[in-house]
Design brief:
This protein is an all-beta fold and about 350 residues long. The chain has 2 domains: about 140 residues, Immunoglobulin-like, CATH 2.60.40.1220; about 190 residues, no CATH class. The longest helix has 9 residues. The chain is elongated, with a radius of gyration of 24 Å. The two termini are about 30 Å apart.
C-alpha cells in the first residue's frame, strides 16, 4: 500500500487541492482562490477558512491551542452556508469552489486554507476525518544588484500623511540596514508617539498634554500631527503590543545619476492593535537626497491595496511621504533593530 493511499484512508475523502500553485506560490493576490475536489461534495458539509499561517511552538493554529485568548487570524470563512470576508461559488458538478475575497491577500507571509473535518460526498459514503491545511503564499521578486552609497544604514524618521480613506498622519521610526554592494535593504519600522512627558519643555502642561519642543515649545494634545520630519525629537518609539506596532520589510535602494537614491520596499501588511486597523500590501517609494544643509531627506508616496477597520474593508489607501535620517546619537532609545536574516514575513512557503 502506498503512503498516499494510507494517508487518504486516515484523512478520508474527498481530497482537496488548491489550483494554480507553483512551488507553493500563487501569482496574483487579488485573483480568486480555486479549490478542487477529487470527487463531488455535499455543499452543506463544506466548512473552510483562509487565514494567516501563525502557529505556536507546538504547531497549533490560533484556534487549536488551550489559550482561549488566541484565535485564528482569518481573512475568509464559510460554515453552514454563511460567509464572511468574501463569497464562494461551487461549480455545477460540485467539484470546484471559487473564492472571491473582499480584499487582496497579503504578499509575502505564509497563508493557509483550513478545511474542517466532515467534508463529504453527496451520498455521505466518504467524509474527511481530520482538519486539513493547505499552505500557500504569494512571492515578490525584488532583485537588488547595484552598489549604492546614496542611502546609508542608520535610523530614520518617516511621516506618512494619509489622504484616503481618511486624512490622518502616521509617524514611524525606521532602522534601515543597507548593503552598499547590492542596495539590498532590511528595515524595522516602528510606530512613533509623541513623548508623553509634559514637563520636558519647561511649560506648565496638563498631564493629558504632550510637550512639543519643535518648531517652538508648546503644550499639545498627543495626537497633534508633526509639521515636518525635523520634529523627530518630540517622538518616542511604541512597538506595542497594546497600542503600538513594529514591522519588518525588505527592499532596494537604487542610486540615480544625480547621486540621489530611490528606496523601494516590498509590499507588506501593517497591523495596528488599537484601534484595530490593517493595511494590506503597503507599497512605499521614497527618493532621498541631501538638502542645502547637507541633511539626508526624502519625499515619496505610499499606497495600500486594502484598509480594514477591524474586519470591515474600507477601500484602498494612499498618501504622501516625507523622511529624514536622524543624526548619530540623536535618536531616542528603544527603537527596535531589524533582524539579521531575511524576516519571517518574506519567507517562501
Amino acid at each position: 500500500m502506498s503512503v498516499l493511499m494510507r494517508a487518504t484512508e486516515i484523512e478520508g475523502r474527498p481530497v482537496v487541492t488548491l489550483a494554480g500553485q507553483k512551488d507553493g506560490l500563487l501569482g496574483d493576490p487579488a485573483a480568486p482562490l480555486v479549490l478542487e475536489f477529487s470527487e463531488p461534495i455535499d455543499p452543506a458539509s463544506l466548512a473552510i477558512k483562509v487565514a494567516r499561517y501563525k502557529t505556536d511552538s507546538e504547531g497549533n493554529l490560533g484556534d487549536e491551542d488551550s489559550d482561549e485568548s488566541t484565535q485564528l487570524d482569518w481573512f475568509f470563512h464559510r460554515e453552514k452556508g454563511d460567509e464572511e470576508g468574501g463569497t464562494s461559488q461551487l461549480d455545477a458538478a460540485h467539484r470546484s469552489l471559487r473564492i472571491t475575497l473582499e480584499a487582496p491577500l497579503p504578499v509575502g507571509p505564509r497563508l493557509v486554507i483550513v478545511i474542517e473535518p466532515g467534508l463529504a460526498s453527496p451520498t455521505g459514503d466518504d467524509a474527511t476525518h481530520t482538519r486539513k491545511r493547505i499552505l500557500f503564499g504569494y512571492g515578490f521578486d525584488l532583485a537588488c544588484t547595484e552598489p549604492t552609497t546614496a542611502v546609508p544604514s542608520g535610523t530614520y524618521f518617516f511621516l506618512a500623511d494619509v489622504t484616503d480613506p481618511l486624512p490622518t498622519q502616521v509617524q514611524l521610526f525606521a532602522v534601515l540596514r543597507v548593503d552598499p554592494q547590492t542596495g539590498a535593504v532590511v528595515g524595522q519600522f516602528t510606530n512613533a508617539d509623541r513623548n508623553p512627558d509634559p514637563n520636558r519643555c519647561g511649560l506648565a502642561c496638563k498631564s493629558t498634554d504632550a510637550c512639543r519642543t519643535a518648531p517652538d515649545p508648546a503644550c499639545v494634545i498627543p495626537s497633534t500631527k508633526a509639521a515636518s520630519v525635523d520634529e523627530y525629537g518630540d517622538f518616542v518609539p511604541n512597538a506595542g503590543p497594546t497600542s503600538g506596532y513594529s514591522f519588518t520589510d525588505i527592499g532596494c535602494v537604487q542610486e540615480q545619476s544625480d547621486g540621489s537614491g530611490v528606496l523601494v520596499l516590498a509590499p507588506v501588511d501593517v497591523e495596528v492593535t488599537s484601534p484595530a486597523v490593517t493595511l494590506r500590501n503597503v507599497h512605499l517609494v521614497a527618493s532621498f537626497a541631501r538638502d542645502a544643509a547637507g541633511e539626508l531627506v526624502a519625499t515619496g508616496s505610499f499606497s495600500a491595496d486594502a484598509v480594514l477597520l477591524g474586519m470591515t474593508p474600507s477601500g484602498t489607501a494612499k498618501g504622501d511621504l516625507t523622511a529624514r535620517q536622524i543624526p548619530d546619537g540623536k535618536a531616542p532609545p528603544g527603537i527596535p533593530e531589524p533582524p539579521e536574516t531575511i524576516p519571517g514575513n518574506q519567507e517562501q512557503p
